[in-house]
Structures
1.
Amino acid sequence: MGGRIFVVSWILSSTICLAQFFFYLTELYTERRQKSFLDWVLTRKLTHADIQAADLDDDNVVSAAEFVIMKLKEMEKITAEDVTMLMECFRNLDADDSRTLTAADIVNTE
């Protein structure tokens, strides 16, 4: 009887350990693949189409904020819908349509 209890506990614990080992291997593979993808996104050469796509305000210039948004979308950290929603929120706060937020804009929205 003691041997059976030992074998059952041994099988359960070894199965759990093996499953955890495979989980760690999968996690390691996924992390390496994600890092490789991020490295590719950050080091690839930009094209004219990338610049046009990144220019959110159609002024033929890509600002630092537009570049960051473009890279975040490429990294799949945010979606176009997220950007649209945030831009709409910004426009609602920008009471004087100056494309900047000032203390006066904030006071006017309260």
2.
Amino acid sequence: MRKNLDDPTADIQKLVNQTIDSLRDLVPDTRTFVSDEIQDAVFDAIDAIEKDMRTLNLAIHDNPELGFKEYKAHENLTQALGKLGFTLNNPSSLPTAFVATYTHGQGGRVFGLNSEFDALPDVGHACGHNLIAVVGVAAAAGLKAALKACNIAGTIKLIGTPAEEGGGGKVILLNKGVYDDLDACGMAHPGGGYGPSPFTGSCPIDGPATLARSGFEIEFHGRGAHAGAAPWMGINALDAAVQGYAAVSMLRQQLEPTMRVHGIIQGSEKWAQNIIPSYAKVSYSTRALDVKACLDLRRKTIACFKSAAEATGCSYEISAPDQEVYADVQNNKAMALSYQAFMEKTFDDKIEMTGMTTASTDYGNVTYKCPAFAPNFAIPSPTGSGNHTAGFAESAGKPEAHRLAMKVAKGLAVIGAKFLSDDEFAKEVKKDFKRFKRGIEEGKNLS
């Protein structure tokens, strides 16, 4: 029987459905909900130290230091953390590493945060590690305040990790057991934003968020000779490097779109234009979707240089340390989705959960050790001034970049507080990590 279009019950049901939908919008997302007391404690603590964090930010930004030599940054960071009530120690052999710890109550889980603070040659903090450093400190301070104010049992560990830019500081610390007792971990990384567009970020969960990376160096040894009088007496190490460089360029034609090979020839400080070079060196990286593919690509790339050495009669030495293998970042879904929902609801910021950056980081290795997530956040920077450029280094020191970093620190701290205070959420986080690890064992992940 055809329904009477004038039946008033249809309008009533429509009104009921609309009411339910509107009420549903008022219910906090269970993945991200924390009490007002927790959120207020986090926000108030970070707002109270914002000026101190800006001073710390500039102290690092304006004094860029290369990996393993971040002595000023280390001193500034540890002094700030000591004043904030954290216990400092260094369980590693790296002089600029540190672990800042705070424990409240008995038992509870352990949530880790990370601060990077090394710079790049010539272009300084062109990857924004000054921002990563203060995000970690501010988030730790906000989380500490929440534990105290709301009597949450748990431990915070902020790990100061040297030499991300090619030194593999986190890999070294992982091997020393520094991450062994963490139940979960978080950090955040800045990227370029263009023009006056609103703040955006990303935290992909549909696969690797970054590429895996492996680095290596090869030294070529030949024999010097006068290039004019007796060039036939020489064995040209530069020729070996150049031939290998050209062979790698040919190799790129057969690489998958997600693969990268890049490097430089070094040794010019030992060269003279009228002497056959007896020494040359290449420094290279390979990148791919996972560690297995990355190492396979490294093997093919090294073969290019081995063949060049044989062709020119040079001997060679290869250095490919374990800490130069960076795994792809795998964001924990439960924490990443919670961060997305919190940032979008609280700050009206759009967080993309798909896509991948072709950059690499040693934090990828951490995401294989424990449940971890690493949201990216965009800072205003000139068109074309992405990471690792002088323009981005300048942008990383601007007040707006700092303001955005403090916003992200609040998000990290809230997710950390939820993990430490919410047993069901913690179970979901660990369940997602177990599912990810099981996928590796079953061959679904190649890393």
